[in-house]
Amino acid sequence: MKYVLVYLIRGKAEKYHQKLVKSVGPKFGEDYMIKNPLPSHITLKSPFKKEQMKYLEKALKKFAEEHKATKIKINGFGNFRRFVAFLKIKFSKEAKKIQKELLETIQTFKDIEISEFDRKYKPHSTITYGNTSKSFNKIWDYLSKLDKPKFNLSFDNITILKKPREYWKIHRIYELR
Fold first, then answer.
1. Closest CA to 77 of 14, 17, 156
2. For burial by CB atoms within 10 Å, which of 48, 50, 96, 164 has the most?
3. Domain that holds residue 11
4. Each residue of 116-145: pLDDT tens digit?
5. How many CA within 13 A on the CB side of residue 119?
């Protein structure tokens, strides 16, 4: 089965993100995020396949118990190669440390690969994905006219999403202390 480790965005920031996802892509003919719905999140460890989750779940439970919640900010919009539009995320030093230590914990599992995406980590929350250059320009112009989103969040969870079939589902949430 396929899994991914994320931080779930909650509250007003989640509502804001979901509203953007449901309106922006379809408005400009980019419906990937609608056809592939996900909870509002920030990826902490890129997708991986794993047969047996028992030991990883135990390690993540212990990890969450040993780490305190810390700060994350949403501060504006960004993009990757004019292909993905996203909410810009700024991790505090403590949040960066937690994500790095999480990868170190994951590396102890020989059957989970740490990818280039994981090593060159750039926290973000995707709004649209797979845009053509024509649609991206329209999306970017639209986003640039919106008020710059600003949210202060508590980095208070590490969540496993699983993809049993077509869509990602919440498998387990670990609350940081």
1. 17
2. 48
3. 2-175
4. 999 999 999 999 998 888 999 999 999 999
5. 5
